[in-house]
Design brief:
alpha/beta; Rossmann fold; Zinc Finger, Delta Prime, domain 3; 5-stranded parallel sheet; 15 helices; 5 strands; DNA replication; DNA_pol3_clamp-load_cplx_C; EC 2.7.7.7
């Protein structure tokens, strides 16, 4: 039988112990593995593997041993409790062994859990699970996680007391990260709030969210956008000493000012424009960019983007002879002075 995405998520957390088996397939191995871990843990409990109630069979082994799955489901464990035979990374080449076990399965046998990559509708293994009266087939695709899935991850990490804005940040983050990375972020956030009874805030989420490779450039971008001209030189010297390329500075500044322009030009206001940014912007950085966009306004940001484009072309020009970092510093000073006008 086929399980819909909504029904599947509920089934993974509370699977039926008397089912013959479950096939989980999809193009993303990480997403499939996470669902497989969840359903097996729910079936056999936290001690199931230690009590030898879980049998693992690599899918590649089924080509040599076609009775491996059937023999495994009939085995009797030394410990009481439900048992699972897990076939990992199965393909249609191993389908005969799995289909044989499905046909000969009887009440009291171990439940069969199979994972596979992307399977066509004509796949023998997929058809067998979809048409079986007591087994399920679930396709896992790269769709954004549902609200139910996100809340389940938060609950599993012990994050129950979350402010509304922080919850919005977490929902946006879940849609940008891989499922495994989001779970790790939730676990990190739970450790960050260990023995802290205060609600989770946007600042907490920002502190625990994965840091982008551009985070080291944030200081100079904020200095320029906030018109702090005197600080530009010293910070640029530090970045130059760290090996930061002038072209990278221009690219990063262009991206930052383009985001500010998009926010400033948004019909709903700067805050609404920043909220639409992808990847999402969190906590203090979000508030800071809203202030910058509001302070600059769309017309001045258009001038800033023109200056950035001209300097970018100059840096990439074959006839360019001036020191590159000096050109960047001159532009940043001009932008900082432009941002100060009319304040």
């Amino acid at each position: 039988m086929k399980l819909s995405a909504r029904d599947a998520n509920r089934y993974f957390s509370k699977p039926e112990p008397d089912r013959t088996g479950l096939l989980i397939y999809g193009p993303d191995a990480m997403r499939v593995a996470l669902k497989r871990q969840e359903v097996i843990a729910a079936l056999i409990g936290p001690q199931g593997e230690e009590e030898m109630r879980l049998t693992r069979i690599p899918g590649a082994d089924l080509r040599k041993d076609k009775a491996a799955v059937l023999d495994a489901i009939k085995e009797v464990s030394f410990f009481p409790g439900p048992r699972v035979v897990f076939v990992e990374a199965a393909t249609d080449a191993g389908a005969p062994a799995i289909l044989s076990a499905l046909e000969d399965w009887a009440e009291g046998d171990a439940q069969i859990v199979v994972t596979a990559g992307q399977l066509k509708a004509s796949s023998k293994m997929r058809k067998a699970f979809e048409t079986h009266r007591n087994a399920y087939a679930v396709g896992i695709y790269n769709d954004p996680p549902s609200r139910e899935e996100i809340e389940a991850d938060l609950k599993a990490a012990g994050l129950g007391n979350v402010e509304h804005e922080a919850m919005t940040d977490l929902f946006n983050l879940a849609r940008e990260l891989d499922p495994g990375d989001f779970r790790q972020t939730c676990e990190k956030l739970a450790l960050y709030k260990f023995k802290d009874d205060l609600p989770v805030t946007s600042e907490d989420v920002a502190a625990c969210a994965p840091v982008s490779t551009e985070a080291a450039l944030d200081d100079i971008l904020n200095i320029v956008a906030e018109g702090r001209a005197r600080e530009i030189g010293p910070v640029l010297r530090k970045l130059e000493a760290q090996g930061v390329n002038p072209v990278l500075l221009i690219i990063s500044a262009t991206r930052h000012f383009r985001a500010l322009y998009g926010a400033a030009a948004d019909p709903g206001g700067a805050a609404a424009g920043i909220a639409r940014m992808r990847p999402p912007i969190f906590g203090p950085r979000r508030d800071r960019m809203v202030r910058q966009a509001s302070s600059w306004g769309a017309p001045k940001l258009e001038q800033a983007l023109t200056g950035l484009t001209d300097t970018d072309l100059q840096l990439r020009s074959a006839g360019q002879r001036a020191p590159e970092m000096a050109l960047v510093e001159r532009l940043f000073l001009r932008l900082a002075m432009l941002g100060q006008r009319g304040r």
